[in-house]
Amino acid sequence: MKRKMNCEIARNFSVLMALEKLGHFPKKQTEQDAWFLSPFRSETQASFKVSIMKNRWYDHGAGIGGNVIDLVSLVLKCSIKETLEFLSDSNAVFSVHQQQTSVVARNHNIEILKVQEISHPALVQYSNSRKIPIQILTIFCKQVWYRYRDSVFFAIGLENRNGGWELSNRNYKTSSSPKSYTYYNYGHQQLVVFEGMFDLLSLMVLDPELINASDIIVLNSISFIRDIKYLFEKYPKGILFLDHDSAGRKATKELLDNFHHLEDGSMNYYKYKDLNDYLCHGFRD
Predict the structure, then answer these.
(1) Does residue 105 register a pLDDT over 60?
(2) Angle at which helices 225-232 and 246-258 pack, to 10 degrees?
(3) How much is the pTM?
């Protein structure tokens, strides 16, 4: 049962616990203070200070501070009402001291700790900011908790064919090993190819019928083009949805020159960097 939360009660909610619920953990801590990497921006030196005694925070890099309500409202970009709901939702708490599931993969000091259905408000908001509804996000992706250099993070994760994960949140994009492409083989006669997870998710928004009638490859890196060429011979038809940068255009041209049954789907968003850029800034209902 949720505790009824008002502003007076919420102001006494621990800033440290709120940061933990938001997926941020201290880089160093004493009895009086804790220092974090800023939840508002990317940085390598912890400049975000929490006074444990005063239960207040101050971001020295941004020059702002306040109480726990201010913090949650700014991080999640939400209303006071939504902030109170977040603070009163005990189910949202995830403690790194809880018993973890077995390690799934490691890469570049990345250790996968837990894989679950996506529910964290920060990830839902990040997905919404990229115009991907949660109903579509959860078809292909998971909520992945991972450790990197003694800190714990969470991200939207797409699993590749070898059990590694592509990891993306508002601040970071990384991956765990083994690195590979993602392949959904449903037995269809058509193959669609994307560079990244958000391209796949974007086409699911734009043209779900095409996705549902196709086998799917997400490269996770343009370099895996060479590893999937043999698959094109298995399909009567293939459609490429690669990025509109130099690497993506070069790969598309090479594939079209060598496999005449392939089509260039990127012509539909030729003015934009990729499918998600088109969905966010060019597509109109």
Answers:
(1) no
(2) 30
(3) 0.65
